[in-house]
Amino acid sequence: MRPAVLFPLFKPLSSLPGLGPKLAKLAEKLAGPCAVDLLWHLPCGVIDRRFAPKIADAPGGRVCTLTVRVDSHVAPINPRHPYKVRCTDETGVLELIYFHARGPWLEKQIPVGKSIVVSGKVEWFNTTLQMPHPDAVVTIESRDEIEAVEPVYPMTAGLPAKTLRKAVRVVVGEVPELPEWQDAAWLKRRGWPTWHDAIRRAHHPEDEADLRLSAPFRQRLAFDELLSNQLALTLVRLQQRRLVGRATKGDGRLRAEVLEALPFSLTSSQVQAVADIDADMAAERRMLRLLQGDVGSGKTVVALLAMLNAVEAGAQAALMAPTEILARQHAETLAPLCKAAGVDIALLTGRDKGKARTAVLERLASGELPILIGTHALFQEDVAFKDLAVAVIDEQHRFGVHQRLQLSAKGRGVDVLVMTATPIPRTLTLTAYGDMDVSRLLEKPAGRKPVQTATIALDRLEEVVAGIHRKVAEGARVYWVCPLVEESEQLDLAAATERHAFLRATFGDRVGLVHGKMRGPDKDAVMAAFAEGRLDVLVATTVIEVGVNVPEATVMVVEHAERFGLAQLHQLRGRVGRGDKPSSCLLLFDPHLTETARARLKTLRDTEDGFVIAEEDLKLRGAGEVLGTRQSGLPEFRLADLAEHGELLAAARDDARLIVERDPDLASPRGQALRTLLYLFERDAAAKTLRSG
After folding, report:
1. Per-residue pLDDT tens over the stretch 152-187
2. Which of 617, 275, 621, 681 is nearest to 426 (CA)?
3. Is-contact 319 301, C-beta < 8 A?
4. Which of 50, 99, 174, 231 is most buried, judging by how many CB atoms fall within 10 Å of its CB?
5. In this structure, are residues 587 and 569 in contact, taking their beta carbons and an 8 Å threshold?
């Protein structure tokens, strides 16, 4: 399906000159697996080699390119001393300095009596100019090999900068001329170059100003990426709308039973969300709605009411969660409410095998089972519904767009409701869920107590442990979250395994440990022991961020809180304060904090509003980091920075809608060029929704 003109850009990195299998792996870790990924790996700095003074005029501490004659080689008497190559011009002496050098090799490379061009940073040592380990040494005839302005790329250990630069240069040189997908008048108004020129300029910056996100060619590339994102979402939405829908309207009897059984009345946001969903389900077109709400804002109840609407109409409903723990928790939460309404529910996960699984599938296929809760096991081919009318997907960001299409294909005109507890700034909501209508739950249910949040320097760890000891003695249960599973040499962070051992020495064997590398059943067993009160302290990595509900847990300790995203910290804090007892969250931080990190932790201390926190996180860290956190699950942009290019996102959204309204199959000449854009930015799933043309 991908246009042939793009084939050269999607070849593996190992096929590029200089990148063998070993170095290609490192480059892949840095940028991605294909040649095109190097195009998006933009320079972060420049080395200007245009300054070419005489030796006597060279200022120390600056990069200079000097033309000199090689006079002599001076090998060290002591191997700990450097090897020197003495060079001159008519104004003075320059020493090239090499540590751990191989003399014979250098004599061959830099022969005495030869005139050469050298480039690198120079320093004055007494009255002699020195250049330690020159960046480039070439003959006068090969002077053009030294780039006048050399781009500096983000690097990874083990990959030579020169090798990466060479590979990027090859890819940029092979970039095909592509048909223009942007509107000509828009390009002229913005003063933007063609795509080809923009790519070339981005990788050949002339100075520091060219690195700015506001540079015209950087803006052009950012807009291309944002347009591909918005166009993909608009096309997916159009495909959903094209699929035949159905009107689902219950009589309200089951929902009335559930509302009666609830220990609280719905908040005004919940009432509004239920009304939005009812209207969507009653319409002939398919529902595609995002339900955003903070931890504890009551999304599950709203989802249940949507599912019961389908059951009242004689159809079935499904709720899919990203993990087994979360699926089980939903089943436990909903079971008593469904029982009150006389509605049968079942749980299906990848672990269910044999007769029990077969029994569930038979009841599902016959229509006898109205509501099924499960993990991605619901996608499996043998899971067949008699009449699925609504699919609820929890924590959508753990699943791809194609997976929600897959689940909605399990029935006729299936309505889709997506829930997320990740507070997402409005700007970013557009990038991940631009194909959806949005409902937001803004209040917390009655009875939820605020969580007292304190920031404490890590050098007061002993005081914290003493305080936790007192709390445990009073019957409290405690989460202790660490950012890493094992001690890393690069990052001096407390590892969960090490902290677990430390706390066991204090609290004995009533301390459990869970982390991402554990097997599912082992993880579940530890979580269950904590939930049942057989453990007092649960040391964990962020696997507990989404999904554990232990109302008795009243203390959350987050170690190295400055290393976590604000939205992530907010979600961790949401794990406590779920019962009737006062709760607290202790954010332990490295005393050597940056001002930004300090401001982020202050935001968390000052507010419990997840949306305020998410907007602040975007402002303080920039979208790159907010988007880059694996927990956020949002699309990670390579060229666009939403903090800087927010207005371009709004323009891209409007442009995408207009394009699809006028040319829904992208069949016009511009439409064909836009198909190329979708494939270029690997939005293949959206491109494949198009009718051929």
Report:
1. 999 998 999 999 999 999 999 999 999 999 999 999
2. 617
3. no
4. 231
5. yes
CA distance 120 to 52: 11
Kindly report whether the global pTM for this prediction surpasses the value 0.85: no
d(CA 597, CA 244): 50
38 contacts 17 by C-beta, under 8 angstroms: no
Q: Parallel, antiparallel, or unpaired: how do β-strands 136-139 and 288-293 relate?
A: unpaired
d(CA 286, CA 450) in angstroms, rounded, equals 38
Pair 587, 540: CB distance under 8 Å: no
- Residue 69 confidence (pLDDT): 97
Can you read off the two tokens belonging to residue 678? Answer: 């979708």
Closest CA to 390 of 245, 242, 252: 245
The two most distant CA atoms of the chain are separated, in Å, by 99
CA separation for the pair 79, 656 (Å, rounded): 66
Residue ranges of the chain with per-residue pLDDT less than 50: 485, 489-493, 545-546, 623-633
What secondary structure does DSSP assign to 503-521, as a single string?
HHHHHTT-EEEE-TTS-HH
pLDDT at 277: 97
| Secondary structure class of 185 (helix, strand, coil) | helix
Tokens of 223: 């807009």
Element (H, E) at 538: strand 537-540
